Amino acid sequence: MVHWGFIGCGAVTELKSGPAFSKVKGSDVVAVMRRDGEKARDYAQRHNIGKWYDDAGELINDPQVNAVYIATPPGSHASYAIAAMKAGKPVYVEKPMAASREEAETMNRVSEETGVPLFVAYYRRTLPYFQRVKQLIDEGTLGDLSTVQIRFTIPPYKNDLERENLPWRVKRELAGAGYFYDLASHQLDLLDYLFGEITGVHGFAANVGGLYEVEDTLTAAFRFQSGVLGSGSWSFVAPPDNRTDMIDFVGTKGKLTCSTFMFSPIVLETTGGRQEYREENPENIQFYLIESIVDYLNGEGPMPMSTGLSAARTNKVMDKILQR
To answer: pTM value?
Structure first.
């Protein structure tokens, strides 16, 4: 039985992840931690969790906790994960894995040295929507794949305009970078899952809107070890109501288009015509990945799809696009 302790119990744990830990067979949540003890107590009471802490060390050293989920901003992922692994407790950490490539590599080194597994919340690898994308590509419906292109634009969030109260996702010390690190990480990890490691990448980043200090506009070109070529463009300061969320896969026999966050119908266009595919997500979107991690830790399943090793590759690519 996997008895989880949460370090961090903010918004992401309310629906996307938290409930899944108790729904999955062979798993439960025994303790949560948040620096604001009152918020930790409130979360524990609302979710019927027996213990709460305002100190991460106390949760990690709780003998009833035998695995740790880290749902804090990326700036603290490495320190919490390393402490948990050194205590012998498997770790599931939110994405992006860390605030930099160097921190991600350090986390993996500690995992290797301690023999304690490390997993990262790139749950899109397990969703039926992206499993369908992978199936269509792997079946050869597109022929020989030549290019993949990410196009992503969104207007500023309301809080981005509040200079005295900016969200943590645009504070480098907490997030590692800006929205690119938070959102594009899902896209780049997905492509790693579909095509393998990106072995060559060049990128440019700028701050066009001036709403905060970190980058808000980026472009990149990359090449996969498999030979597929790719590109991406991201803007987080688009005009109001201007949203683009598309990934185009182009091959010698057709084109496939999907989204990353909107889950719009998957569109396949070939000489045989146009087809659309729709897939349903689980209520708690991280369910399938959490289930696979629990099964693995209980000795009942294979290695999960998203590990520290695969996730660190995404940190590496993002840092190269950011030219750091």
So the answer is: 0.97
List of domains in the chain: 2-124+285-307 (3.40.50.720), 128-280 (3.30.360.10)
Quickly count: other Cβ atoms within 10 Å of residue 1's Cβ: 10
Q: Report how far apart the first and last C-alpha atoms of the chain are (Å, whole number).
A: 42
97-154-236-92 Cα dihedral, nearest 10 degrees: -10
Interatomic CA distance for residues 2 and 56, integer angstroms: 19
Render 66-108 in DSSP notation, one character per residue: -EEEE-S-GGGHHHHHHHHHHTT--EEEPSSS-SSHHHHHHHH
Q: What is the pLDDT of residues 177-227, one digit of tens each?
A: 999 999 999 999 999 999 999 999 999 999 999 999 999 999 999 999 999
Calpha distance 315→96 (Å, rounded): 7
The answer to whether the Cα torsion of 215, 218, 220, 224 is positive or negative is positive
One-letter identity of residue 263: F
